[in-house]
Design goal:
mainly alpha; binds iron/sulfur cluster
C-alpha cells in the first residue's frame, strides 16, 4: 500500500501525458507530466521516511523540482504565457494553446479530483515562497482576503479591454512576440509582491491568501474535490483537540473542527500539503 501511494503520482503523470500527447501531439507532455509525477512521488516518499521533524521538507523538495518544468521548460519550449491574463487573451482570440491546457488540467478540471493540490505541490510561485526563512506567526487579516477578487477582476478585465476596446491584435502582436514577455513580467511582479508580503505578515503564503487571483478559479471545483484531508476513522486514533494541526496549517484552515467532529476537511483554502497530518500526535488525520 505504501509503495502504491508513492508510485501513484508518477502513474497519474504518465496517464495525463499519454492523454494529452494523443489529443494534442506535443512531445513535451512526455517530459512535463512524468517529471511532475516523479517529483510528487519523491516528495511523498521523503515525507514518509525522513525523521519526523524534517518530513515537511519532502513536499518542499517536490514543489521546487516542479518549478523548472512549468516556469521554464513549457513556456520557453512553446513561447507561451501561462498566467491568467495570458490565458484569457488566448481564449478571447479562440486559440487553444498549452497555456489553456495548463489551466484546464491544473486549475479547472484537476481540482475536481485533487482540490488545490496544484497550490501545495506544483505552483512555481509557492515553490520559492515555501523556502523563505519565515516562521509563521499569526494569521493574515481575514478581511484582506477579498483583495484576490480584485486582482482576479483585473487579470480578466485587462485582456478584455485590450481586445474589445483597444483592438489589441492577439495573433500578430501577442502570439510568439510579446507572450513570453508577459509571462516573465507577470511572474516577476508576483514574486516582487509575494516575497515582501511573506515577511510583512510573517507568513510564507500571505500572497496566496491575499493577492493571487488563481484561487478564485480553483475554489468552485475544489469545493467538491474527490481527494480531501479526512479523519482516520480509527477509534484508537481520536482527535484530542491539541490544536497542533491548526497551528501548522499554512492556509489557516480550522482543521481541528473538521477532524474532531469526524468530518472531511472541506475547505477550499486547503492545499493538500499534509502538514496537519504530519504533526498530529494521535494519527487522527488519514
Ligand atoms: S494561491 Fe496562487 S501563488 Fe499561491 S500556490 Fe496557488 S496559484 Fe500559486
Ligand atoms: S488542512 Fe492540512 S493539508 Fe490542508 S492546507 Fe492545512 S495543513 Fe495543509
Ligand atoms: S493535531 Fe490531531 S489530535 Fe491535535 S487537534 Fe489536530 S487532529 Fe486533533
Amino acid at each position: 500500500m505504501f509503495w502504491l501511494s508513492v508510485a501513484l503520482p508518477f502513474v497519474i503523470g504518465l496517464a495525463v501525458a499519454a492523454i494529452l500527447y494523443f489529443a494534442v501531439g506535443w512531445w513535451g507532455f512526455w517530459v512535463v507530466f512524468p517529471w511532475i509525477g516523479f517529483s510528487i512521488a519523491l516528495g511523498t516518499y521523503l515525507m514518509a521516511k525522513l525523521p519526523r521533524k524534517k518530513r515537511s521538507v519532502g513536499r518542499r523538495v517536490a514543489i521546487l523540482m516542479v518549478l523548472p518544468a512549468l516556469l521554464l521548460f513549457v513556456p520557453i519550449a512553446n513561447n507561451e504565457n501561462f498566467q491568467l491574463e495570458g490565458v484569457v487573451l488566448l481564449v478571447l482570440a479562440g486559440y487553444f494553446s498549452k497555456g489553456v491546457i495548463h489551466y484546464m488540467v491544473a486549475k479547472v478540471f484537476g481540482p475536481l479530483i485533487w482540490g488545490r493540490g496544484f497550490c501545495g505541490w506544483a505552483c512555481w510561485t509557492a515553490a520559492v515562497l515555501d523556502w523563505l526563512p519565515v516562521k509563521k506567526a499569526g494569521r493574515v487579516p481575514p478581511e484582506l482576503k477579498k483583495i484576490r477578487y480584485l486582482t482576479f477582476a483585473f487579470s480578466v478585465l485587462l485582456p478584455v479591454i485590450l481586445v474589445w476596446f483597444l483592438n489589441y491584435d492577439v495573433r500578430n502582436d501577442y502570439l510568439h512576440k510579446a507572450e513570453m514577455l508577459w509571462m516573465f513580467a507577470g511572474n516577476a511582479l508576483y514574486y516582487l509582491i509575494a516575497v515582501p508580503l511573506a515577511f510583512i505578515y510573517k507568513d510564507r503564503r500571505a500572497f496566496c491568501k491575499l493577492v493571487c487571483p488563481v484561487p478564485v478559479v480553483m475554489k468552485p471545483p475544489a469545493a467538491v474535490a474527490l481527494i480531501t484531508i479526512a479523519p482516520s476513522g480509527k477509534p484508537e486514533a481520536a482527535c484530542v483537540k491539541c490544536g497542533q494541526c491548526n497551528r501548522v496549517c499554512p492556509m489557516d484552515v480550522d482543521v481541528m473542527s473538521f477532524i474532531s467532529q469526524g468530518r472531511k476537511v472541506r475547505d477550499t483554502e486547503c492545499i493538500l500539503c499534509m502538514e496537519c497530518r504530519l504533526v498530529c500526535p494521535t494519527g487522527a488525520i488519514a
